[in-house]
Amino acid sequence: MPKILVVDDDPGNAEVMQMVLESEGFQVKRICQSRQFEPSMTSFCPDLVLMDILLDANDGRDICNDLKADRSTSHIPVMLITAMLESQVSNIACDADDIMFKPFDYAALVNKVKNVLRRAATN
């Protein structure tokens, strides 16, 4: 069962995504503070990171780029979620594997998560 780390500074959003993904059989850990990211990566070892762009003290695009630049974590797919406009997202270059814009349908989220995981498994 793939493990997904959900990173969203809105506890309600994080909880709903966790419930939806767990109902699909994924093992999910959610965190709501960006300072918990590195310890969670080490202890949970996710197969996918699902992360909001606008976090409490950091920008999810920067965290994504750091993750992709590190040889030990560069293989982990990152899917960003955001309420930003598409034109605003490109202000910071990012190596994310996929992105979803809020509001989104949770069935679409599950489908995208499965597709990102499938692509990562074939690479």
Automatic annotation (TrEMBL):
It comes from the Bacteria. Coiled coil: none annotated. The keyword Phosphoprotein applies. The modification 4-aspartylphosphate is found at D52. InterPro entries: Bact_response_regulator, CheY-like_superfamily, Sig_transdc_resp-reg_receiver. Keywords: Phosphoprotein. GO terms for biological process: phosphorelay signal transduction system. Residues 3-117 form the Response regulatory domain. The keyword Membrane does not apply. This is Response regulator receiver domain-containing protein. It comes from Pedobacter suwonensis. The lineage of its organism: Bacteria, Pseudomonadati, Bacteroidota, Sphingobacteriia, Sphingobacteriales.
